[in-house]
Amino acid sequence: MTKEFLFLCGRIRALEAKLLSHAQIDRMIGAKTPEDAFRVLTELQYAEEFDEATRPKDFFKIIRKGLLETKTMITSGTENDPAFEFVWKEYDLSNLKRALKLKLLDGANEFGTFSESDGFAFLGSLNAQEIEAAIFHGETKALPREYRAALIEAEAHFAETKSFRDIEFILDRAHFDFLKRVAGSHRMPILKELLELRADGTNLRSAARCIFIWKESLPEGALLPHGILDTEMLMAIESLDDLKKAFKAHPFFERFEKLFTKDIDPTELLIQLERQINNATIEWLSERESGDIGSIIVPMTYLQKRIRNASRLRFVMAAKFYNIEPEKIYETLKHF
After folding, report:
1. Dist. CA 91–CA 130, nearest whole Å
2. CA–CA separation, 228 vs 230, rounded Å?
3. Which residues of 104-124 are buried (b: 16+ CB within 10 A; e: fewer)?
4. Cα 293 from Cα 270, distance rounded (Å)
């Protein structure tokens, strides 16, 4: 039997009215000044972060603080349920890769400033000190056992091959092995399904990068075993047509089909495919969350929506400060 979080879910249902709407995005894009666009944030949950000293240039700080408070609300309201490692560990994985790249490629012995401008994410479950201790000092006790083993393998592999791409594949496999363990211990069928969806998305993303960037098929070491797409089909992808066939087997192929019918630059196609893979997860969660009363899927879906909305708000506010034309803002937002 899965746990229920009726109080938290009730609070979230009330907060959903403050999620970013299309009308509010339109008003921000059409605003004459960044100050006018910034006022829209007072209509959202970010209003709680404002004080007399708040200025439009503080938009990044306000949005960041709002997301952190949402994380606090969810972790406390679910008693820090392990299911949310499906979210937090995505950021931890990114931070570990970033720190490892600094160490192995740049020869750094520390990562300096732990900020988004330096490539680090702030929503992980591991803090800056734990990331730095693991990568630069070998103190990995804060990491899941799958990550600890992967870091040892990764550094040994890099010493031989100098290939950081292989390092990323090693860490990705460890990450999904960890998620499989979480899904297995939680006994929620939806977590197993989410694991499969994310594994398939990651495999398709890796295959697309291989043919577009490295002009080769997917290396065997890159393949994640936790999805439902046929592994032989994934390993055989060598062209755009092969990639399209693989995407056609994805349950959300309709999100990608139009991209394959366009005459589009491969780099831009890769960017759009990756964004649509991420958006497909939110759509999938939303479908299962509809009508739910108190399960963990409600806060999980709400969190993903808040994260996506924050990304849109940051982009629109930055665009207003740089005086980007509304048409260009709308065109870019299609991919968020």
Report:
1. 13
2. 6
3. beeeeeebeebeeeeebbebb
4. 37
3-state SS of 175-234 is HHHHHHHHHHHHCCHHHHHHHHHHHHHHHHHHHHHHHHHHCCCCCHHHCCCCCCCCHHHH
Other C-beta atoms lying within 10 Å of the C-beta of residue 231: 14
Chain position carrying tokens 């970033």? 98
Structure confidence at residue 283 as a pLDDT band (50, 70, 90): confident
Nearest in space to 123 (alpha carbons), one of 165, 76, 88, 162:
88
The answer to whether residues 179 and 210 touch, using CB atoms and an 8 Å cutoff, is: no
Q: What is the pTM of this model?
A: 0.91
What is the phi/psi pair of residue 2, to 5°? -85, 150
Strand ranges for the chain from DSSP E = none
- Which tokens sit at 17? 């009215």
**45: its two tokens:** 């949950």
What would the pLDDT profile of 82-108 be if each residue is shown by its tens digit?
999 999 999 999 999 999 999 999 999
Q: pLDDT tens digit string along 32-80?
A: 999 999 999 999 989 888 888 899 999 999 999 999 999 999 999 999 9
Half-sphere exposure (Cβ direction) of 20: Cα atoms closer than 13 Å:
25
pLDDT of residue 1: 37
The per-residue b/e assignment along 3-32, b for 16 or more CB within 10 angstroms, e otherwise, is eebeebbebbeeeeebebeeebbeebbebe
Percent of the chain with pLDDT over 90: 76
Cα 117 versus chain centre, distance: 17
CA pair distance 224, 170, nearest whole angstrom: 10
Report the candidate in 210, 205, 243 with the shortest Cα–Cα distance to residue 224: 205
**What b/e sequence results for 234-260 when a residue is b if at least 16 CB atoms lie within 10 Å of its CB, and e otherwise?**
bbebeeeebbbebbeebebeebbeebb
